[in-house]
Amino acid sequence: MPHADQRSHVRELARQVARLAASPENAAIMQRWRDVNALRVPDRAPVWCRPVGAWGELLPEEALLCRDEWLRGVERHLRMILIKCDIGDDSPVDPFYPVGAAIRCDPPNVWGVDIGRHMPGRGGGAWAYDPPLVTEADFDRLQMPRFSVDHEATERELERAHELVGDVLPPQLVCSTPLCPTLGTDAADLRGLEQMTLDMPLAPELMHRLMAHIRDANLQAVDDLEATGLLTRNNVGPMTCSEPVGPETADGHITRANLWAMANSQEFDHVSPAMWDEFCLAYQRPILERYGLVGYGCCESLTHKIDGVLSIPNLRIFVCSGWTDLDRVIERVGDRHVIMWRQKASEVVFPNDPAVLARHLDDGMRRLRGCHVQVVLRELQTLAGHPDRLHVWTKLAIEAAERYSQSNTTPSSSPGVSASAL
C-alpha cells in the first residue's frame, strides 16, 4: 500500500473512533463507570474484558494494512478500539489520540543491573526468571533510578500525531508514573520468585532491603515526574474511568493526589497474611497513601487478607479474583467500596458446559446485588480458536448485570439466556 494510502486508511480509522467517542452509547458507558467509581448507583454494573495475549487472534499482524512502522502502530491502536466496540463491552472511548511522554531513565536499565529471562522456544510457552541478584554482594550493584522527560522527543511525537489526525482525533499528552506500586513484580524480576519465597523466612534482612529499595525508587519516580509539571490524570479508560480525582495545585499542575494507583500482591499470593503484610503491604502503603484513589488486587486470592486490603488509605476498588471467596468480600466490603468481580479466563475459553458460565454470572450478580460492582475478565492469553468467546461472554455478563441492577426491582430468578453460542 502506498504511503499516502496508508495515511488515508489511518485517518478513516480515526474518524470511526471519533464518531464512537461522540456517540450517546459511549456517553452512557462513561457515565456507568463514573457512577460506580463514585459509589453511586449506575443503570447497571459495567462489564469489561481485556484480551491481552488473545489480541494475536483478534488482530493478527498480517491483518494490519500499514507497512510504515509508526503508522502501523497507530493503525493497531485504533483497530483495537473498533474491535472492542464490536465485542460490545463497556470499553470507554476517549475523544483523543494518546501520545505518551518520552520518559528517560538514568540508569537506562532502571536498576543498574540487567533483568534476564529464560524465554520459550519457537513453540511458545512460559518464560522463567533469570534474576541478576544471585548473591548478597549483588545487592550492592542496585542503583536508584531517576526519571525525566525528553521534551524535544515528546514534542516531535505530538507534532507528528497532530499532523496525521489532529483535525479528526486530537492528540493529547499522556504522562504517567514510570514504576508500578505493586513492587512484587520488580522484586521477582530482580531476585527471582522462588528465591524471594525462600528469603522471607530464611534471609528476611535481604528481602526487607530489596523491598525498601523498590519502595524508595517508586516514591522518587513520582517525585521526578511531578517536578516536570507534565503528569496527567489517569481517570480515563476502563476500571478507573471516573470523575476527576482531587483538585489540581494552585499552579494547575497534577500530582499523585490527582491519580489512581492500581496495585496487587500476586507474587505474595502463596504466603501467610502476616508475611504478606510484613514484606509487601508495609512497603506499598507509604506509596499508596499519597494517591487520590486506590484499587488493589489482581489474580491472587485475598480471602484471608481482606482486612489488610481494607486498611489501605483511599481504597476505592477491591479486586475480587476468581480465587477469592466472593461471599467473604461481600460481607466485609459491602457497599463501602467498589468490588471488581474478576472472572476466570479459563472458564470462559474452555467451558465444559456453556450453560455453567451463564449460571455463574447470574449467581454472582444476584449475590452482589446492592454492592458497587464492576464485572471484569482479564488475562486472556488465548481464545483457543473460538473468536466469538468474548462476544458471547460480554452478552451474558451484560444480561446478568441488567437483571440484577438496582434499578431493576424484579430480577428474574434464572439467567433466561441461551449459552448455546459458546
Chain-wise SSE layout:
Blueprint: H1 3-21, H2 24-37, E1 47-49, H3 55-58, H4 69-87, E2 97-100, E3 103-106, E4 116-118, E5 128-130, E6 146-149, H5 151-165, E7 171-174, H6 184-191, H7 193-202, H8 204-228, E8 260-263, H9 273-288, E9 293-296, H10 306-310, E10 315-320, H11 326-333, E11 338-343, H12 345-349, H13 354-368, E12 372-377, H14 389-403
Explain this structure.
Residues 416-422 have low confidence and may be disordered. The chain is globular. β9, α10 and β10 (315-320) form a beta-alpha-beta unit. The strands form four sheets. Strands 1-12-11-10-9-8 form a six-stranded parallel β-sheet, with helices on both faces. It is α/β, with parallel strands linked by helices. It has 14 helices and twelve strands.
Features:
two-stranded parallel sheet, disordered C terminus, 12 strands, 422 residues, alpha/beta, 6-stranded parallel β-sheet
Question: Fraction of residues in helices?
Answer: 40-55%
Order the strands across the largest sheet as they lie in space: 1-12-11-10-9-8
Identify low-pLDDT runs: 416-422
Distance between the termini: 37 Å
Q: What integer is the average pLDDT? A: 94
Oligomer: single chain
Proportion of strand residues: 5-15%
Q: In total, how many beta strands?
A: 12
Tell me the overall shape: globular
User: Main beta sheet, described?
Assistant: 6 strands, parallel
Number of helices: 14
Structural class: alpha/beta
Order of helices and strands: HHEHHEEEEEHEHHHEHEHEHEHHEH
Radius of gyration: 22 Å
